[in-house]
Amino acid sequence: MKKLLHPAQTRGSANYGWLEARYSFSFANYFDPERIQFGKLRVLNDDVVAGGMGFGKHPHKNMEIVTIPQEGALKHRDSMGNEGIVESGDIQIMSAGSGVEHSELNANQNEPVKLFQIWIFPETENVTPRYQQKKIAPLLNKNTFSTVVKPKGVANEDELWVHQQAYFNIGEFTETTKTTYEVHNRAHGIYLMVIKGTVIAEDETLNERDAIGIWDADTITISATTGSKALLIEVPMN
């Protein structure tokens, strides 16, 4: 088993006035040659967007983009004709594929919106762009990690999926819990970030926004305290 710790305070940061960002991996003006990506996980940004502001219309290509608002709501619009609100409690997936343009603006003029922006390298390039959005709560079982996003070839018709052998899992713990996560493939690794509370992963204690990467393992032992919430992303390492 191999482990890589990313304490919250070691992340990159930027304040653009309208946007306060924390970068788990090199992004925009933050560059660290030791933190380019974790396997096929390229971006995990922890963003706070000021009221009425946001990411104007811009292009993407050949990237699986997952957005998870934590507080507030985003107003989404894209070149595929999708338009609507993505609020806290939702998860949004956009396969940029052969090319797409979109905007994500704070839907509230007076309150900030807080969100995770996550990019995964696809296993197939230049696919037809696509969009999905769902409520997270119906997908979760308490006191364990529930898979909310699966690979295309594994997901059922009504499930969220991406063009990669990646699994997104969310754990919400109403009581102190010890659980074991089984990795789908020995060639995969997991990147675990604590959203709130305290989680112990393979004897490493993680607090809010601390993260750990673990690979070369078949199973991972995780303990969470009451009130904790965490995001666990499994991705191919090569």
UniProtKB/TrEMBL annotation:
Keywords, A to Z, come to:
Iron, Metal-binding
* Highest taxon of the lineage: Bacteria
Cofactor descriptive note: Binds 1 Fe cation per subunit.
Indicate the segments forming the Pirin N-terminal domain, all copies. 13-120
Cite the binding residues for Fe cation.
58, 60, 102, 104
- Kindly give the InterPro entries that the UniProt entry links to this protein: Pirin (IPR012093), Pirin_N_dom (IPR003829), Quercetinase_C (IPR041602), RmlC-like_jellyroll (IPR014710), RmlC_Cupin_sf (IPR011051)
A single Gene Ontology MF term assigned here is: metal ion binding
Q: Which Pfam families match?
A: Pirin, Pirin_C_2
- The Quercetin 2,3-dioxygenase C-terminal cupin domain sits at 156-235
Name what cofactor the protein needs: Fe cation
Q: Which family does it belong to?
A: Belongs to the pirin family.
Protein name per UniProt: Pirin N-terminal domain-containing protein
Taxonomy-wise, where does this protein's organism fall, top ranks first?
Answer: Bacteria, Pseudomonadati, Bacteroidota, Flavobacteriia, Flavobacteriales
